[in-house]
Amino acid sequence: MAIASLLSPNHLASRARWAILALPWLIAGCVTPVDYGKIRHSDYVAAERCNPEPDAALAPDAAERPFFFVTSRLPDCLTENIRLLHHRGDKVRYGRFAGPQEVEREPGKTTRTIPLAFSDSQQWWANLAAGMQNADGRVLLYVHGYRETFFTSSRDTDQIMRLTGFAGPAIQYSWPSQGALLKYPVDETNMYWDERNFRKFLMQLAQLETTKEIVLISHSLGARLVLPSVEYVDRNVPNGDSSVISNIILVSPDVDTQDFERDIAEEILSERRVRNDRRITVYASIKDRALSLSDDIHGYPRLGYPRCFSPFEAAELEARGLPERCYAAHPKYAEAIGKAALTIIDTTAVSRGRTGHSNYLQSAPACSDFAAVVSGERMPEGREPTHLGHVFVLPPIASDEKPDHLAICRRKE
């Protein structure tokens, strides 16, 4: 839009409305303390099943719980079924889980739950290595974002695996998100607190002898946990060989765009790593209401929300007849290599849902593109090029097409 339109009453009123909506979010998140609860945290984890010993007989059944998880959440082992709470745990724990299942709580009433069980860490790593050996050393690692519970992030992990048909083992890393709309500042705090835990785990996964390729997926705020951790592994892994972290997918990343360009992209997408086939795929949308609000809160554009910070740049795009969207730049040194180090997919035209923040699991075209990227495709069908070589758009769905978004994105057996 032109400078005049940026300063128009309608535009300013729209931004003001978002600011007003953000105000109670910020106030509630900042002045409402996290409730410790009425039970000592040490009592929650005292039971033996919270701290299993190495014993193959006690290992979770892989058929019943096919997915792996690592968590820094505080577990509640006092109840019949273990729960993972929103508090910080006393240590990192390992286990297995299954997708959502219907459980009858009382006659005629059922609820959906996530079956899970903890494992001894050594046993967990051995089981993971065995699963990777059967899949040519490939593993999928998913890191959730803001406002997630263990149930919701496990449900998404299960959907990702069904959608993509990924043949190797899947790991969900669950950090202590509060799972609440008005707890964004708390989620940010816990995400930064957990960075040390996650980077140690990622380092160990990258150095595992059986690891040949890590497909690393993050959603929303999870990107701020993932990116510095990858950078940490790059700097500290022996011999500097961290090329197993090759396929990094950032979905709706709640990351400062300029920070990504300046500090992160040049390190993670260095020439040597791009030559070793590392690449980053970003899914972004200007209809992402969650990131629009984060943009207002932080004051600068988000990587997953391509707002033009400079009104002059927006005016120039408008003058050229182009959409007024500004994206992270492709690393210049990577362009000379002839490989796409950074690819940005704009899902604005196919955005779905109330917030447009999870198109990769809700919109058929975005789901199909995402599944192809996970499988290793560099240029899936359906994308359209833009004036920028590293940016592509998913075009609007034709009026005579009525895709079954639910069936395509969930791909039930």
Question: What does it look like?
Answer:
This protein is α/β, with parallel strands linked by helices. 38% of the residues lie in helices and 20% in strands. It contains 16 helices and 13 strands. The chain has helices at 3-6, 9-31, 41-44, 121-133, 150-164, 184-193, 195-207, 223-236, 257-268, 271-275, 289-298, 311-319, 332-335, 359-362, 364-374, 405-410; strands spanning 67-76, 83-97, 101-106, 109-113, 116-119, 138-143, 170-174, 213-219, 245-251, 279-284, 342-346, 384-385, 391-393. It has an 11-stranded mixed β-sheet, sandwiched between helices. Strand 6 (138-143), helix 5 (150-164) and strand 7 form a beta-alpha-beta unit. Helix 2 (9-31) crosses helix 11 and helix 7 (195-207) packs across helix 8. It is globular.
Q: How is this fold's topology laid out?
A:
Blueprint: H1 3-6, H2 9-31, H3 41-44, E1 67-76, E2 83-97, E3 101-106, E4 109-113, E5 116-119, H4 121-133, E6 138-143, H5 150-164, E7 170-174, H6 184-193, H7 195-207, E8 213-219, H8 223-236, E9 245-251, H9 257-268, H10 271-275, E10 279-284, H11 289-298, H12 311-319, H13 332-335, E11 342-346, H14 359-362, H15 364-374, E12 384-385, E13 391-393, H16 405-410
Parallel strand pairs: 1-7, 6-7, 6-8, 8-9, 9-10, 10-11, 11-13
Antiparallel strand pairs: 1-2, 2-5, 3-4, 12-13
